Amino acid sequence: MTATGRTRDWGALLAAAQAGDARAYREFLTTVTPFVRALARRRIRAEDVAEDVVQDSLLTLHRIRHTYEPGRPVEPWLAAIVSRRSIDALRRVGRQTAREAHDPLAYETFADPAANRNEVEEDASELASMLPHLPPRQREALTLTKLQQM
Questions:
Q1: Distance between CA 106 and CA 98 in Å, rounded?
Q2: Dihedral Cα 25, 28, 30, 36, nearest 10 deg
Q3: Do 89 and 53 meet the contact criterion of CB atoms below 8 Å apart?
């Protein structure tokens, strides 16, 4: 099928979906998903981020499907949605990379109370040395919560 034929079919399906045809909308989403996925993968190399873009694009498409003007080409409209969602995803990944550090050891937890005994004792002695310098109410709150485990 040619790109123009496919676009014409998508346009007819989306116009029918705007008129309330649930079957046409389901078929539209099914047939445009590979196109949306291809656009997302062309812009984003990371597979998981690209799939997030696909899902976000489909949700955006669902929210703004009423803005499509029947008779106009569908592919550029979809490409604009995917492009903007891709840019948003790349910005989000960039912010996360700049602000977050990946340290696998930070996620380790120990269920055995004896495993962290040294750290607990060090923390308690450090806290006890700082207590005299606090106002009475803060001292009491820390003593009750941290030292007496109340």
A1: 18
A2: -130
A3: yes
- Give me the amino acid identity at 12: A
Rounded to the nearest 10°, the torsion over CA 76, 79, 85, 91 is: -100
Q: How many domains does the chain fold into?
A: 2
Q: Which residues lie closer than 8 Å to 128 by C-beta, 6 or more apart?
A: 147
Instruction: Find out whether 56 and 93 touch, Cβ atoms under 8 Å.
Output: no
CB 18 within 8 A of CB 68: yes
Q: Which pLDDT tens digit goes with each residue over 22-48?
A: 999 999 999 999 999 999 999 998 999
Decide if pLDDT at 54 tops 60: yes
Q: What is the pTM of this model?
A: 0.61
**Tens of pLDDT along 101-143?**
777 766 666 666 666 667 767 777 787 788 888 888 888 887 8
CA distance 71 to 68: 9
Q: Kindly state whether residues 8 and 72 are assigned to the same domain.
A: yes
| Boundaries of domain holding 34 | 3-99
| Residues 121 and 90 both lie in one domain | no
Q: Is the pLDDT at 3 greater than 60, yes or no?
A: no
Tell me if 14 is assigned to some domain: yes
